[in-house]
Amino acid sequence: MESRNQFTQQCIARAENLSVSTTALYNKLSGVELSVSEALVRETGQDLAELVKLVGGEQTNVLPGYCIKIVDGTCLKGTDHRLKAIRNYAASALPGKAIVVLEQQSKIITDIVLIEDGHAQERSEFDALLKKVKPQHLWCGDRNFCTLKFLFTIQDKKAFFVIRQHGGMGFKELEKLKSLGSTETGELFEQKVEINYEGKTLILRRIVLNLFVPTRDKEWEIAIFCNLPESVEATKIAEIYRNRWTIESFFQTVTKNFNGEIQTLAYPKAALFSFSMALVAYNILATLRGALWGVHGVEKIEAGLSDFYLVDELQGTYRGMMIAIPRSEWEVFQGKRIMSTRPSNSQQAETQSH
């Protein structure tokens, strides 16, 4: 043990004397495979979601009995760093895209699909996303996810969806729209419709909300496709979709507070790794918020806690602690990790064998 500690100290001493160029670091980051970045977010996110549950920080399930997954895509902004091959083009390079999955109760990012081609359609990676669908999942997303294959695959996996209707999605009306009265945001209507894909037929509920106030895109109507049973009221379905906007504020938090989009990173793998690290930092913040929710209640924390000032306080405290406390005092925490209640891969295999 003593020789091991001596070796560790020698490595630390050597590391302090090394000078690593920015180019070398950048080249290293540009070689990080997308699967590594995805696993980083997924593994830490699942552990932190369990921690939020343990500290009593989960929010009330909007629809008990269902695991609500809010899904959305984002495109990293054009980079200021111009690769030699594209310096003669006016448009900035797009370093990549990501499809992010947020759990409604914990507000933790538990999964991600990364796309190296920033100009590719998000739909090109829907197959990878659909592999993550499990029974009793309820997937909520905007109209970009409204494709026949996406909806039928979720149905085939005995899962559910609340997806905004895409204007190009054809359907057959099985009945006229029925008025269900007013909500806080608009007049609510419902009807049964039919869609078809590869010889299969699916009957859906189509919920229409005529808004009192238009959206930021100047739209006065929101139409939603869902396959939830009739026992789930249309008002509840509209509420579930409205809660989807949680993920919009999440993207703002990542971009502004955690530098999720670094303008000088042009290589896709480097930019997407940086974005993934920002997601991990966001999840740690969400875990802290969850702990505060468990003690003080959701309403009080949501009304009085600023993500910006919380992050600023943590960053300032960290810098001060690193100055005031010797490096050796932190070594005891190396290798520590959250004690997960999830079974390990070997335990899962053993359970399946039985």
From TrEMBL:
One Pfam family in the UniProt entry: DDE_Tnp_1
GO molecular function: DNA binding; transposase activity
Transposase IS4-like domain location: 65-284
Superkingdom, natural source: Bacteria
One GO-annotated biological process of the protein: DNA transposition
PANTHER family registered for this protein in UniProt: TRANSPOSASE INSL FOR INSERTION SEQUENCE ELEMENT IS186A-RELATED
Protein name per UniProt: IS4 transposase
Natural source organism: Nostoc flagelliforme CCNUN1
Source organism phylogeny: Bacteria, Bacillati, Cyanobacteriota, Cyanophyceae, Nostocales
